[in-house]
Amino acid sequence: MLIHHLRVLPLLVRMHVRSQMEYRGAFWLDRLAQILSYGSVFATIGILLDRFDTLGGWTWPELALLFSFQLLAYSLGAAMSFVQLRDLEELVRLGTFDTLLVKPFSPWAYLVFSGLNIGYAGHVILAVPLMGWAVLSVDFAWSVWSASFLIAALLSATLLTAALITMIGATALIWVRSNHLFSIFFGFWELTRYPLNIFPGGIQTILITAVPLALTSSVPVGALLGKPIPILGDWAGPVALLAGPIWVLISIAYWRYATSKYQGAGG
């Protein structure tokens, strides 16, 4: 059965990618709009730095590394989860999720891979060159260890992003409605493109614990650059690396729990 699933997954991805690329002009115009949108956000950070020189002790190249890290981790994680799990609410409301339960296939795997969102290409196109520039410009002595930490932390942040989105979407299996929770998610996510230490203690605690999105941005990048990390201190690096795998396990358990509570279209 596992081999069968592994053979089917690439087919699901190819079918969805072809459907998304049917109107290529519109697709790439949308990506350009994404690049301009996030580019304007980064320009705003640049304006702040031009006025105040540093932000919470972070210089311009360091903030560029933070911004690109946050954007890249989000785009990779959300490509595997956001649109698919956002649409789960509608599947539950209309009762079409029931059809996935009778397929000889994991409902989660089918949702994720049949809806793999290549629309995040715009995020990646902006984030990768910016990260490359930041890595070369930041005042930091790179080594094999630090480069390996950056890659591992990026992978962990990607997993954490996908896990949190999965848990939000899975809530629809219990409550039917869950998309309002995404508004809360993105409200906090927008804060994480800035250093954690500029926020009040209460928000710092929330961004590390209840909505641990700081672990997808300023905590791993700050630990890499040797910045003081509120609350976590010297544990920031290990926590950032372990957060992704741990939250994936939590999201798997929550998905199974939510699925067990699902009562079908009839309620």
Automatic annotation (TrEMBL):
The UniProt keywords, alphabetically, are: Membrane, Transmembrane, Transmembrane helix
Instruction: Name the residues that span the membrane.
Output: 28-49, 64-83, 108-136, 142-175, 196-215, 235-255
Q: Which InterPro entries match?
A: ABC-2_transporter-like
One Pfam family from the UniProt entry? ABC2_membrane_6
Its domain of life? Bacteria
PANTHER family linked = INTEGRAL MEMBRANE TRANSPORT PROTEIN, SLR0610 PROTEIN-RELATED
Report what the protein is called.
ABC-2 type transport system permease protein
Q: Taxonomically, what lineage is the organism?
A: Bacteria, Pseudomonadati, Pseudomonadota, Alphaproteobacteria, Hyphomicrobiales
